[in-house]
Structures are given as C-alpha cells and as structure tokens.
Amino acid sequence: MKQVTVSIPATSANLGPGFDCLGLALSLHNTFTLTGSDSPTVSPLTIEASGVDAHKIPTDASNLFVQSAEIIFAKVGKRPFSLHLQQHNCIPVGSGLGSSSTAVLGGMLAANALVDGGLSRADILQLATDLEGHPDNVAPALYGGLVLGVQGEEGLHIEQFPIPSLQATVILPDFHLLTSEARAALPSHIPLKDAIFNTSRIGLLIHALQTANFGKLNIAMQDKYHQPYRIPLIPGMAEAFAAARCAGAAALALSGAGPSLIAFAPANHQAIATAAQEAFAQAGLTSRTWLLSLDTEGACVTIAH
User: Fold this and answer.
1) pLDDT tens-digit series, residues 106-149
2) Among 145, 164, 200, 254, whose CB has the most other CB atoms within 10 angstroms?
3) Where are the beta strands (DSSP E) in the chain?
4) Residues 6+ apart with CB under 8 A from 36
5) Poorest-confidence range of 87-91, 148-152, 199-203?
6) Which of 23, 17, 20 is closest to 163 using CA atoms?
7) 139 vs 234: CA distance, rounded Å
8) Are the C-beta atoms of 16 and 218 separated by less than 8 Å?
9) What is the DSSP letter of 61?
C-alpha cells in the first residue's frame, strides 16, 4: 500500500489585464492524500471530504480529483485496484481562487507519484492545461509565484517571475456566480483600443509586482477584457472596489472570474477588508476575508510507503 499527499496553493488568475494567461499563487492550500492498494478485498473507491465546503465535494467517481487521476492512470497504463482519497479544503469552492485547479493538478500529481508514472511536471502541466482550457490557474499552482502561460500550436510556454513578499487582501462575498454566466457575460469581440489597453499593461504589471511599485501597480492592474462585464453580475462589487480603494488599496482586481476581490497595498490591509465587507453588507451580502502572502513553492508532493 502506497500513500501520496499533495498540497496545492490557491491562485488568483485572470490577474488584472492578464486574462487567461497570468496568475499568482497564494498562501491558502487544499490538501489531498491518495492511498492505493492492489488488494481485491478493499472497496474500489472511497472518499473522505473535510474542511471548507466539504458538503460540496463529490464522494464518488465524479470527484474532479479522481477524474484527473484517472487521466494519468490511463495515460501511463497503470492503476491500483482501489483508491482511498482524503480531501481537505481550505479554499472555498467556486470562489475564483482556483479550487477546481487544485483538484485537477492534485489528482494528476498524486496519480503520477502513486504508480511511478514517470511524467515530468511539464507533462502534468500540459495535461492539466488541456483539461482546464487555460494555464493561468494550474501553472502558478504548480510552480508557485507569478506565472505567465502562453499556449501555442507548438505547445505551452511558461515563464515564472520572482516577486517580493507582497501581501494580498482577499474578500469573498457570499454570492454564487456560475462559471457559465461569467463566461456568457463576455463580449464575442474586443475593440482594438481595449486590446491595446490590456496588452500594454501586462508587462507593466509584472514589473510593478516584481519591484513592489504600488504607484505603477494601480495603473498596471486595470483591465477592459472581462472585469467591466463581470463586476455588474456581483451585487456590491463595484461599491466594494471603490470602498477598498478609498481605504488604501493601491490595486484591485477580480480574482479569476470572481466573486472574490483581491487587493494589494503596502499597509491598511484590515481597513481595506473592512471597507469592502461593509460595501457588500450594504448590498445584502455577508463576506469572508483573508490576508494572504504569496506562495513561492507551488505544489508539494510527499510519498509514504
């Protein structure tokens, strides 16, 4: 019997102007422990879920971690007779903080380690990106830090950027935003001036994060690809942006497709969180907040025999 434990960080993707290509790993983690056995006396699949939103985690073969693990088993041609998964969530489901990406990446990494599949991290990243459709969650979750991912005909190109010990304030309103609704809100075409607006800011954003230049970060984090269309879907979000900025936030963005809001500032983190929470409360929503550092390690895999 072999056991693999994988810890995967939360991520903030679609970061500012970096729609579907730029993401940041954060110090909030989901942990998965996968045990394999070849004994036919053991149940083929058992799942224990705990932690945040445990009641939302499927405990059958539809579990995303399990589905992702099965992709690896099929690819390498090896699979234990039975699997036991212990999944502990610290990242809320459907929060815009990459919870589903932790399951995809966790399942693939754990399965590869469990059966000595021999796949490299680059192989795993490509498979995870194929499943997710874009690399801006799975790439920073795998490698840590700030990561730019470019998917081309010749494959996936990843660039990791060293950044200082910044802190991010994350505010999550109690509002369920369907991924399908968030996608449907996007326009089918982007005006050229909006494309120029975003592309001109990606390099500046990377530089501002690397140098902790909060003055430039305010300009660099601006976006016209998705936030103008998604912010109106979330009650109180526009007001939360304004309130957080008045409380001292240097830069603000939706995390992923939302509904989380991520704020960067040199100080006043609690005041920023409180101001945003009060704005959501005015819209009738409770909310949760975290003060998170950046995760620079990425996915961690531990094997026990």
Assistant:
1) 999 999 999 999 999 999 999 999 999 999 999 999 999 999 99
2) 254
3) 2-12, 22-37, 45-51, 82-89, 146-152, 155-161, 167-173, 251-254, 261-264, 287-293, 300-304
4) 1, 2, 3, 80, 82, 83, 114, 115
5) 148-152
6) 23
7) 27
8) no
9) T
**Residue 1: pLDDT band with limits 50, 70, 90:** confident
In the block, tokens 């326009």 appear at 187
Does CATH place domain 167-293 in 3.40.50.2300? no
> Per-domain residue ranges for the chain?
2-162+294-304, 167-293
Question: Residue 151: its pLDDT value, please?
Answer: 86
For residue 221, what are the contacts with CB-CB under 8 A and spacing of at least 6? 15, 16, 17, 201, 205, 251, 252, 253, 264
Location of structure tokens 């059958």: 60
185-195 pLDDT, tens per residue?
Answer: 999 999 999 99
Q: Which two tokens stand for residue 28?
A: 């909030």
Instruction: Provide the strand spans (E) within 131-250.
Output: 146-152, 155-161, 167-173
Which residues, in sequence order, are CB contacts of 19 under 8 Å at separation 6+?
198, 223, 225, 226
Q: Span 239-251, mean pLDDT?
A: 98
Q: Residue length, the chain? A: 305
Q: For residues 216 and 219, what is the distance between their CA atoms, to the nearest angstrom?
A: 5
Query: What pLDDT, on the 0 to 100 scale, is given for residue 208?
Result: 97
More confident residue, 39 or 22: 22
Residue 86 pLDDT grade (very low, low, confident, very high; cuts 50, 70, 90): very high
Fold of 2-162+294-304: Ribosomal Protein S5; domain 2 (3.30.230)
Question: Which pTM was predicted?
Answer: 0.95
- How far from chain centre, in Å, is Cα 160? 16
